[in-house]
Fold:
Amino acid sequence: MNSRLKANIINTTSIILIYIILVLLIRIGFINNYYEGILIEMGINIILAVSLNLATGYLGQLTLGHAGFMAIGAYTAAILSARMNLPDLPLLLVSIVLGGLLAAFFAFLMAIPVFRLRGDYLAILTLGFGEIIRVIILNMKITGGGKGLSGILPLTSFSTVYFITVITVTIFYTLINSRHGRAIISIREDEIAAEAVGISTKYYKTFAFTLAAFFAGVAGGLFAHHTLVLDPKDFNFIRSIEILIIVVLGGMGNLTGSVLAAIIITILPRLLMGFADWNMIIYSVLLIAMMLFKPGGLLEKREFSLNGLLSGKKKSQGNTPVKNEGSE
Amino acid sequence: MALLETKDLGIAFGGLRAVGDFNIKIDEKELVGLIGPNGAGKTTVFNLLTGVYLPTEGAIYFNGENIVGKKPFEIVEKGITRTFQNIRLFKDLSVLENVKIAFHHKMKYSIAAGIFRLNAYWKEEKEIEEKAMELLKLFDMQDAAYTTAKNLPYGQQRKLEIARALAADPKLLLLDEPAAGMNPQETKELMETIHFIRDKFKIAILLIEHDMSLVMGICERIIVIDYGMIIATGTPEEIKRNKKVIGAYLGE
Structure:
């Protein structure tokens, strides 16, 4: 009980401390508008990566339609926030949550046909669904079609993104370390064995997929109120692949890895501004190098734990190992 | 009333009738062997009983309830668990986690309680941790609790799979060739383990096995199948003398 309380205090304090430091740096102008934008994008990418990691890394189902759910969340939130009359913060929260819910609803509907398939077929089907969503958006009036949707209120700020990211990562962390998380991981490990020890694989696949879509929708909502202009091209399948690259780079089934990789992948294109055309090639080389030298991801099985660090223990806090360890 | 009773159970894959007219009764705490030549349909019977295959004919009564059409995980909840011929562990998880996962359907806390770590979460997780460790102790595996399952020696992997099946709290345990790939010493230990499980957990066990010394040594009753049909049932002594059985195994 006591150590639990201590751990909570340490974690909460450090989260707030980091926040204060960053806000101060923004206030004194050390972090200018441009860098603040990068920080916001980092947060959005972290939410996207962590949520995709649930479906792909923990549940073990390769899904390639994450950008589709992000698009649903983005457009829903943008359209709703323009039509509701609320103060800024509640307006943002209500619209992104509703965007997330709509994305989750579509994921829930898709889960039934999608999970009759496995492996490559599942990947292709989800890729198809993601593209369908994009094409529908492209052809609707309310979304502005190919012209895109503009005039979105600038509601996303560093603070909102920071806290929503922290909450998201925390939710995924605690979920993964509960009995429900174990059930999800067991499906990745061996679906037949999972069913044979009393786990409803259908229920947990649907749940994990829907939850992942919800947070993709939330990230989409934040994205919409940050970029202020939405174009269906932002959500093509390259975007889904980008999110997948973050997950693979960080390690399938490793939350810390996803967070770290999201930060790296957000900064990387900025550093390589002059080589914009080379982006995809650099990603590919990066991925191949990862597969060759660190197939388990950046951190392999290790999860970061501040408490573990402070008490000098080497033991990882999470019981969430990585599946992908290369060939045996 | 028998714990498990099948009535004219059968399954056909296309035109091939893999199992047919399969009638068995297993009482509580009974230890029954299911033997037969390769391809006789033994594993198919297991797959029928655990809901992996849907029978094309007949019925399965467990505790008096027809369980045909139930999903595998629902059948686990009713009280039938199994192991696999080719071991199916959660390979990249620790031994302890393998066992904990099998407690899942006995645990109650909700997804929200898990995410927000309410009291129910802490209480049940603590309980399950203790129960899992106790179970591992019974199998003398407590020292390997934090070992990754795939790094265990073969015999221990088999043991872990049995432990995991027991964690799901069965009334009937199905063991699919538990001694496959074991040396005589390991087989002997396994026989003792199976006996011990039955007495300690007071459950019925149905096991498929090719190792005759094991089957004859521990089973109270043996069912012999060939080409998907039961050709004999009886005590080990009766089976040894049965002409049909000798014919199926050795040829006329």
